[in-house]
Amino acid sequence: MKTHLSRPAQSPPASNRAYLIIEALVYIAVVFVLLGAGYAAMYRCVDNSIALRRNADDITSALHAGERWRADVRSATSQARLETTDAGQLLSFESPKGPVSYRFSTNAILRSVGAGPWTRLLPNVKSSTMRSDPRQYASPWCWELELAPRTQGSVKPGRVRPLFTFIAVPEGNLSK
What we know:
The protein has 176 residues and is of the alpha+beta class. It contains one helix and eight strands; from the N terminus they run H-E-E-E-E-E-E-E-E. The strands form two sheets. It has a five-stranded antiparallel β-sheet with strand order 1-2-3-4-5, with helices on one face. A three-stranded antiparallel β-sheet has the order 6-7-8, covered by helices on one side. The termini are far apart. The mean pLDDT is 84.
């Protein structure tokens, strides 16, 4: 009986072994490029999320300030007085709580009740205009408000231009 002697396995030529190492390096480079692009996209999403949260917080603050203004104007017991000075615009009137005043100056809306101090009601305001808007059966007050875009660090300002208009009618001002 003839037995076949098995030959020892031949190793691949040196050129094939080098090809496998180069191929592995290419795959590693592709993985690093994909990871880099993924991280860049993730950080851009995080920055946009921060800008969106800040914008939502500013809008919420403006709505709360507007509702407080509307409640104060509705409860006014006297005719409102509007003054424009170098320091800014000032709206004041009497209410059951005492005199209430709103002032726009230094990019903020300030509020004072009675003889109390001025408190910052809304910061980061670009423009504010309060005016009387007389109509046939009522004399409402109109407050037009624009918030300034905020930028901090690498976060770009939001794309939303926050503009608000609040209208309120003093309760004693309705004619039937």
